[in-house]
Amino acid sequence: ASKAAAPKAAVIPVLPSGLVDLLMLDQMLAAYPNALVCLMVANNETGVRHDIAAAAWACAAHGAILHVDAAQSAGRCREDWLKLGASSVALSGHKAGGPPGAGALVFSSAHGEHVAPLLKGGGQERGWRGGTPALAAIAGMAAALDQPYEAVKIAEYRDELEAFCVGIGGQVMGADAARMPNTLCVALPGVRADTQLIALDMAGVAVSAGSACSSGKVAASHVLLAMGMGDLAGQAIRVSLPWNVTQADCTAFKQAYEMMARRALHRNPVPLTQAQFAN
Question: pLDDT band at 215, cuts 50/70/90?
């Protein structure tokens, strides 16, 4: 999507931890000052959380504008990204548990008045986007963002699943970085992601190979390839815990994952079709 929107845009590399390479960002900004920098608060595949304050400092030093994508993080971590130095922040209602169809673009006081309208027309939304707002979806988004989020409890569940997967032979992606409490990206060396997806799906467990937007796709993760994970990029699944996850859910996942891993590794492994797995 970024290549289609900005084909000449430069991509900031990441470290093996999944964190953005801040040294390279500083060097790139020195070569291209006054740039627009777009950075996710947290990666939607690995859950790795970037240092927004440090990125904002680098941008300010070179006169650059920092836009932050907080779709994966809004409602799950209580940070004021504008106070940390971002010029604008994008939010998504359904990612926080609200209905689909509403999002928000929040500007800092220094930049909002200088933005050209997306859709010219009436005076809705301060003249930035003409048309009647989707009031029901907007109200739902506001209600979802206002709900408490039990980050500590959900992180404990995530850590429980992580330790279990590692004990069977899994390798956690981004384990050395701060991560979102609900996201676990784990590779099972030697076992293709599609093999894992089929087996877990047959056991009633929904995971994805890559981000939730990639559910059903089995290509190697471009995120993990950028992290230098090599073959593991095609052997990793993403587990995302909902706000209402329970201990019973975690137990069901562990049972399904153990059965999948032991069977796949015993077969050394070969991609399983649904018919094969049913035998």
Answer: very low
For residue 126, pLDDT over 70 is answered with yes
3-state secondary structure of 252: helix
pLDDT digits (tens, 9 = 90+) for 40-66: 999 999 999 999 999 999 999 999 999
The 3-state secondary structure of 194-215 reads HHHHHHHHHCCCCCECCCHHHC
Residue 106 CB contacts under 8 Å (≥ 6 apart), including other chains: 82, 88, 89, 90, 91
Question: Would you give the DSSP letter of residue 92?
Answer: E
CATH number of the domain that residue 98 is part of: 3.40.640.10
pLDDT of residue 129: 80
pLDDT tens-digit profile of 181-205?
A: 999 999 999 999 999 999 999 999 9
Is pLDDT at 278 greater than 50 in this prediction? no
Angstrom distance (rounded) from CA 219 to CA 206: 17
N- to C-terminal Cα separation, the chain? 41
Report the number of distinct structural domains present in the chain: 2
Show Cβ contacts of residue 128 under 8 Å, excluding neighbours closer than 6 positions: 105, 115, 117, 118
- Please identify every residue annotated as catalytic: 213
Residue 186 domain boundaries = 151-278
Torsion (CA) 24, 39, 177, 15 in degrees, nearest 10:
-30
pTM for this predicted structure = 0.84
Together in a domain, 117 and 20: yes
